[in-house]
From TrEMBL:
It comes from Oreochromis niloticus. It catalyses: D-glucose 6-phosphate(in) + phosphate(out) = D-glucose 6-phosphate(out) + phosphate(in). It is a multi-pass membrane protein. The keyword Membrane applies. This is Glucose-6-phosphate exchanger SLC37A2. The gene is SLC37A2. GO terms for biological process: phosphate ion transmembrane transport. Belongs to the major facilitator superfamily. Organophosphate:Pi antiporter (OPA) (TC 2.A.1.4) family. PANTHER family: GLUCOSE-6-PHOSPHATE EXCHANGER SLC37A2, MAJOR FACILITATOR SUPERFAMILY TRANSPORTER 16, ISOFORM B. Residues 6-455 form the Major facilitator superfamily (MFS) profile domain. The chain crosses the membrane at residues 62-81, 93-115, 121-149, 161-180, 186-207, 267-288, 332-352, 358-378, 398-420. GO terms for cellular component: endoplasmic reticulum membrane.
Amino acid sequence: FDCHFLMILVVMSYHLSRKPISIVKSELHRNCSNIIQPKDINITNNVTWCDWPPFDQDNYQTLFGVLDNCFLVAYAIGMFFSGIFGERLPLRYYLSIGMLMSGLFTCLFGLGFYWNIHSLGYYAFVQVMNGLVQTTGWPAVVACVGNWFGKGKRGFIMGVWNSHTSVGNILGSLIAGVFVSTAWGLSFIVPGIIIACTGVLCFFFLVESEFHGQERNQEGGETAPLLRDSSIVDPSINGAISTEPDVIVEEHSEAISFLGALCIPGVVEFSLCLLFAKLVSYTFLYWLPLYISNVAHFEAKEAGDMSTLFDVGGILGGILAGLVSDYTGGRATTCCVMLVVAAPMLFLYNYIGQRSLGTTIGMLLLCGALVNGPYALITTAVSADLGTHESLKGNARALSTVTAIIDGTGSIGAALGPLLAGVISPSGWNNVFYMLISADVLALIHSFNKEIKCSGQNESTVFTLLKT
């Protein structure tokens, strides 16, 4: 069983199991006045009779924000510890147990439909536990994949590989959409079973030795494992690609400390940039179907299907960001340019995005590419660059911790975005988009700050990128 394909399934299943909540929201609270009332049910409120308590209240958007935040805050907190555990525990057991537990809690949310549970506390607890166990995935997976690719085409190759996160989001939306209007519990149970089964495959077929000490080309070309090329001088982590042969150095057996990882040049700047970029991305992830349903008046399934176009754009944006950053040697500059363009596009989508079907499709694809492009680049190629910085002196065990710090900081933004959307949306969707545009500008500032620090070492990067 090919371990490369297995890791693709792992990433897809993690993201697939996170998506149902965004699809089911528009089913938990509906406009019941437009629905034919069953004759055998005694209805006292024509507006909320078809809603699922406790989401039949006027503050339902705030309650949805609470559910989102229970998952995302737990995920953000757990992520800072996940990388540390991932460096010290067997990868096969770590991933397998995490996926089995994630499948369990995803199914428990859906079983609330069949058990007729109407307690917010129950759903909040399930979300918290699911957020914690989901942190087992990303640091371990990036550490594995980081061993496969050399620096020369790392941005492009990892951009293509990272597209499976968006594919997982798309599949999660489509699977949840199949059941959302008939039995929304299955929208959670089916993805839960899928990630649990993938965990079983991971336990039986993941060979950890495939990810350690691979030396496909010691002459230092494109395929040398990145954890072997940390002796190359990489002054900026802005993506300057060295053409010098790799020098194999002895790996350190001691895992890097949390503070030691923070001291790596670029970790703080890119972490803060990801915080705001992920805030925008995850607000779309959790609230876009409801926004489309409310503004364009689509049914829950149609809104969920339409929202997948944002993830399709994310696939294209991640690949484009990686390709351009490889060609120009500028990771930070690539992020800057995409974030600059993203701000006005978000404004335009809110004002003209629902005027016609063609406009909606085009704007969703464009916004998805511009928002998720920098996000994908930072969580993959940039994390790999920083995890193999020259200051680590060949320490091959640092990548998981660096990835956890960057993604953990980004997950704080992922938690803040949906929470703020839940609080702000009752005052109007325009205000939600103003918040997203502000976050995009803040991400741009931190990315630009990193570019300024590196400008003395790579002055022509920005001009090369603009020419491209």
